[in-house]
Specification:
The protein is of the alpha+beta class. It contains four helices and twelve strands, in the order H-E-E-H-E-E-E-E-H-E-E-H-E-E-E-E. The strands form three sheets. An eight-stranded mixed β-sheet has the order 4-3-7-8-11-10-6-5. Strands 1-2 form a two-stranded antiparallel sheet. Strands 9-12 form a two-stranded antiparallel ribbon.
Length: 298
């Protein structure tokens, strides 16, 4: 674990240096592309000899723009009710006594991460809020973030994301390792790869702050490795679920209560085409070497 922490600290140092050299940074050390260089003044030359050439009739072909798929019919009524609707999350492994899942909700996305903190799906004032997706990368039929983060309150009545806290128990993650997250255009499953406790301020830990909520797109393998190393360092479990650069992820975030401003986070990888996620059911074990925030150790 010490070697892994050293590698993580070294990675963080490299990324920090890259940030200092960059004019603008977003997400996991993602640099804003450089402005194009200005053109040099023209060089004076002797007049060119012009010749007449025959015109060519060969057509230039270009790739047609991608076409957004049709929305799923089963979600049309929710979109008509609220145009901020972008998808649905359901976790079948955590259920009420009648077998109904605790987490089975519409997901919205708007132009900030504030509006739905105290609004329900109908945009009415409600302290319970609504489950919403991070606004920075819009979810469309053609694109979404490499790592989509969903936020939900940990309400005392067990609504919204309160029951994510049960992922602190090994038997729960073994039962609820598959998460269903559909967008308006696609049904998809995700398999849990990490569950961890974290603070949101530097002074809550003795290693560099990991802002998981800013890890949206992995433009480089280094971006991905920074994210993966950090979620594995803190992971409550070891698992047989493998991940690689190019995979898509879903991150679920809610408040926890070990210390003030703590968060409990569940990260899942999108099931690949042709993959059977049930093979991972028995691979989850407790991780005795997980890193816990300094505040949680006192």
């Amino acid at each position: 674990m010490d070697t892994f922490k050293n590698r993580l600290l070294k990675t963080a140092a490299v990324l920090s240096a890259a940030v200092m050299l960059s004019c603008s940074v977003t997400g996991c050390g993602k640099k804003v592309e450089d402005e194009p260089e200005g053109t040099l003044p023209p060089v004076e030359t002797a007049p060119a000899i012009t010749t007449v050439t025959e015109a060519t009739t060969e057509a230039t072909t270009t790739e047609p723009p991608p076409v957004e798929p049709d929305p799923l019919e089963k979600y049309m009524e929710y979109y008509e009710q609220n145009n901020d609707f972008v998808g649905w999350i359901r976790i079948d492994g955590i259920t009420h006594s009648n077998g109904e899942p605790y987490i089975d909700y519409p997901v919205v996305q708007t132009t900030d991460n504030e509006f739905y903190l105290d609004k329900n799906f109908n945009k009415e004032k409600d302290v319970k809020g609504t489950i919403y997706a991070d606004y920075k990368v819009p979810i469309t039929g053609l694109d979404m973030a490499d790592n989509v983060t969903l936020y939900g309150h940990s309400n005392k009545d067990r609504s919204f994301f309160r029951m994510l806290l049960d992922y602190k128990k090994l038997d729960v993650v073994r039962d609820a390792y598959i998460i269903n997250f559909d967008t308006r255009w696609e049904e998809a499953q995700y398999v849990v790869v990490s569950c961890f406790l974290i603070g949101i301020y530097e002074n809550q830990d003795d290693i560099p702050l990991f802002e998981y909520f800013k890890c949206r797109n992995f433009d480089t393998e280094e971006d991905y490795q920074y994210f993966y190393d950090n979620i594995m360092l803190r992971n409550y479990y070891t698992t047989g679920v493998e991940c690689e650069y190019g995979d898509q992820f879903l991150t679920l975030s809610t408040c926890s209560y070990e210390f003030s401003d703590s968060r409990f986070v569940v990260v899942a990888r999108k099931v690949r085409e042709g993959e059977d996620p049930t093979v991972y059911a028995d691979t989850y074990e407790k991780n005795p070497d997980k890193h816990m925030p300094k505040k949680a150790r006192h």
